[in-house]
Amino acid sequence: MLFSNLAHATLARPLSLTQLVTRSDAVVVARVIGKQARYDQEGRIVTDVALEVERTVRGDAGRALTLLCFGGNIGEVGMRIAGEPELDDEGRYLLFLRNFEDRFRPVGMSQGVMRIEDTPSGTRVHPGGQGLSFTQDGQRPSANPMWSPRSLDALIEEIESLR
Questions:
Q1: What are the pLDDT digits (tens) for 4-29?
Q2: What is this structure's pTM?
Q3: CA 47, CA 34: separation in Å to the nearest integer?
Q4: Is residue 139 part of a domain?
């Protein structure tokens, strides 16, 4: 009998904030308003995530947009890709987006999807990169080296200064 381990992470190079911004066609604060899994033309399961844009930080994504994420569930069949973002229903996110056909894709897989949380001390942004192991040339994989949660306003100010 053969057993195999499931992959729990995808190796990726960490993207700096500057790289996330410069590789993005749009950077927005948005809320999930719906999700629909489907099969794409290649027979893969993908999920279209409908988002309402609360604030455009860079570029133009309109007031509503669709984010394409690989993986999802259709009936009893599911597909998950380590490092691909999984957005919570009604969740709020800071998104670094690139155009992809008639939708958007996140820059750097889950690195470009940062969860926003309202706390008693203010609105915080959590770094993306869930499901990814980061590596630099010749170094061992590690957790997200980017930063710890920080203020949404301070992060947006930094992004705007990178234009």
A1: 445 555 666 778 899 999 999 999 99
A2: 0.86
A3: 10
A4: yes
